[in-house]
Amino acid sequence: MDKLVASVLTMLHEWQENKEHPIPQEHIHRHSFDLKSSKAFTTMVAVSMLCFVSLVGNYFLWQSKQQYKDDALKFRIIRVWRGCSSKEILWLNDVFDIHRNEKTIKLIKEKADGYDLQLKSKADSLMQAR
Fold it and tell me: How far apart are CA 74 and CA 80, in angstroms?
């Protein structure tokens, strides 16, 4: 009987010690992604809308950048021609905007680049002459 009482007292002592100083247990967190969840669905819709708005914005930005390039090339060719008439401006608008013709645009770019190279070489020769 003394052994039984000693055993019970030992168990009570261990239980009391575990109660005062519990052994830390590892907590495992599991996250599940369920489309039925309103938060997950709302997040997916918000991210999808943000991506769509970003794509549309990038498209319009790209279009604007192309327009600036075209306008710069128009002004360069007008400088090469040393001015132009209203008929030539209408032709440029037709080539660049109305009936876009990439071959003609490429030829215009080559002509403007050639003029810029000639101008640069002439300026360099004048600088060397001084």
Answer: 10
- Asked if the model's pLDDT at residue 85 lies above 70, the reply is yes
What are the angstrom distances between the C-alpha of 127 and each of 80, 96, 121?
22, 37, 10
Q: Burial level of 112, CB count in 10 A (0-12/13-18/19+)?
A: buried
What integer best gives the mean pLDDT of the chain? 85
Taking the model in full, what pTM does it have? Answer: 0.54
For every residue of 25-54, DSSP letters joined together read -PPPP-----TTSHHHHHHHHHHHHHHHHH
Residue 21: its pLDDT value, please?
Answer: 64
